[in-house]
Amino acid sequence: MRHETLTGVAKSGVDWKAVGYLVSIVSVFFLGAIAWPKPGDPAWHLPALVIGMATSVIGMGFRYKAHLDQKREIRRTENEAERANGRKR
């Protein structure tokens, strides 16, 4: 069995996924502002719009939390691998 050193991707310092989620959240509010019910619209339009906007933002929050959890797990696994490689030498 060969033992090879794995090299990681250089870290840029900017979490582009976070930026993407923030842009998506801002877009939800802009689209919600355009879709805001007019005085003659049915009464159910406003609650439906607010619930739709809220669930979209909450969903993006959950996805970003999953992204952070995945990054944390990768770092933990990399650290364990480095410690294991250090003991084998």
Question: What would you say this structure looks like, in words?
Answer:
- The structure is a single chain.
- With 89 residues, the chain is an all-alpha fold.
- 72% of the residues lie in helices and 0% in strands.
- The protein is built from two helices and no strands.
- Helix 1 (16-35) runs antiparallel to helix 2 (45-88).
- The longest helix has 44 residues, at 45-88.
- The model has no long low-confidence stretch (mean pLDDT 89).
Secondary-structure map:
Elements: H1 16-35, H2 45-88
Helix pairs in contact: 1-2
Major beta-sheet overview: none
Element string (H = helix, E = strand)? HH
Query: How much beta, percentage-wise?
Result: under 5%
Structural class: mainly alpha
**How many helices?**
2
Mean pLDDT: 89
> How many beta-strand elements?
0
Q: What does the overall shape look like?
A: rod-shaped
Radius of gyration: 22 Å
What share of the residues lie within helices?
over 70%
Distance between the termini: 15 Å
Would you identify the regions where 5 or more consecutive residues have pLDDT less than 50? Answer: none
What are its keywords?
89 residues, single chain, mainly alpha, rod-shaped
Short description:
This protein has two helices and no strands. The chain has 89 residues and is mainly alpha-helical. Helix 1 packs antiparallel against helix 2.
